[in-house]
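Q: Got a minute? One more chain.
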Amino acid sequence: MDATPWGLIRAMGQVSLRTNDLGASIHDAVDVLGLQVTAAERGVTYLAASAVHHELRLIESSENGVESLGLIARDGDAFRELRSRVDAEGLRILRHRPAPLGVADSFAFVGPEGFVFEVMHDIQDRRIDRVGFGPTRYGHFNFHPTQPTAMKEFLVRVFGFRVSDVIGEDYAYFLRCNSEHHGIAIIKGDGTLHHHAWGAQSVSELTRLGDRLHVLGRKLIWGPVRHGAGSNIAAYYVEHTGNVVELYTDIEHIYNDLRAPVYWQESDVWFNDWSDYVPEGFRRLGVRPAEVVDGVA
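A: Always. Here it is, folded:
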């Protein structure tokens, strides 16, 4: 089901990761997750699941880390409004030109806690090859800032995200930019990106993911589970960089723009309707922003 946009951001665009083994990361993205390579240049590989130029960008580096988190502006007017809002916040712009391959225009800036956000406009389409396996599209990311409420307020104020669910006091928030329950999930942590998530057509795709990992001598680290917040059925594994990848299906869509947030106690079983089990150390997984890794921020 397509997500219906209503604000300045129409979709979650892409995630860019630095990797100390580009070949291993490409293998994970293609042979495990099922993405397709769409382009490559000078140590950068572009991959996608849907009919756009790219949704994942892998960058060869000496260290693993998050390069940027990309968001797609609704149109040209929204793109300019977002740039104006970022400038008004006094945030450091990293680049305006050149835009990544397949993107007509973009700008990137350093946001709270060193995370780099990249706003994109007018992304090139591509023809999809549906042979084989793989998700249908990139859906959301989940990160763990040290100050979740401040991060939530920033995303609402600058990008216009709306709050779908609230967990506890200053603990977790699920935010949406279109009808899909969340494009960004925030859970209090150590300042890392925990996972990027990809939508699948059915739960059978999650079982096939488990089978592929088994053949490779690897395992799902959690799932399939039915999340309470968002209602999606999800399965998780760890890819080369140490970041977690989620494959999900059957997520809640919210078509009432004015729907009030759903509130949960932190002690509620909001993370899994089917049991109260969470793997030990699950929330400690993830990678830090590359700016922090490189000692720049």
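A: Residues 292-297 have pLDDT under 50 and may be disordered.
Q: Perfect, thanks.
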